[in-house]
Structures are given as structure tokens and as C-alpha cells.
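DNA binding domain-containing protein, excisionase family: C-alpha cells wanted.
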Amino acid sequence: MDNFILSPISLDALQSSIAACVKKEVEAALEVNARTKSKDDFISRKDAAKLLSISLPTLHEWTKNGTIPAYRVGKFVRYKSTEVSGCMNKIRTSLKR
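Answer:
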């Protein structure tokens, strides 16, 4: 295979330049990924009920008695997806007793 020089730059300089660009892009992608994972996503009542496989009235009752924490965002009631997942485990263990 023939070696072609695209510009008057040494092979070592080209490799280090490419490595620096790749490193910068990977670090930026990791930072964005870390920010999105640390932020907890809110889900709607309908999605929370579907995730728990319960009806909306049951979800309302569980919210009233404190089984599942809810948050009011504007005029809407929202649930944190991680807390809903945690409540699923809590509810399952309490039902086994």
C-alpha cells in the first residue's frame, strides 16, 4: 500500500492531533452523559400508573397515603422515575408479608 502525504505535517504530529481531537470529543460526550444521568426525569401520572401496572385511582390513593412521593410541577402532578422504581420494590416486599 502506498503512503500519501496530504499536507506537509509529520506522521507523529498528525497522530497527536487526531488523538487530541478524539479525546476532546469523548470527554465532552461523557460530560453530557453524566449530566443527563444525574438529572432525575419526571414522568406523568399515566406513565407512573402504567409502570406500576395499577389504575390512576390506585395511584392517587397511594400518593395520598404517602406510598409514592409526588411533585407538583405547575398545574401537573409528576413522579420521579427512580422513586417509582424504588416504590415498586417497596410495595412488592410489603405485599409478601
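The beta strands are 42-43, 71-73, 76-80. The chain has two domains: 9-39, 42-96.

Cheers.
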